[in-house]
Amino acid sequence: MNASSSTSNTSPSADYGIDAPNVIRNLLIIGVLAWLVLGGISLGIVPHILVLPLPGVSLEFPLVNISIGAGIFLPFGAAWMLWDAKIGKLSGRDKLLAEFDWTGQEHVLDIGCGRGLLLIGAAKRLTTGKATGIDIWNNEDLSGNSANATIENVRREGVTDRVALETADMRKLPFADNSFDVIVSRAAIHNIYDRNERAAVIAEITRVLKPGGQVVINDIRYITEYAADFKKNGCTDLHRLDFLPASLLTTLITFTSLRPGILRIRKAK
Question: What is the pTM of this model?
Answer without folding.
Answer: 0.79
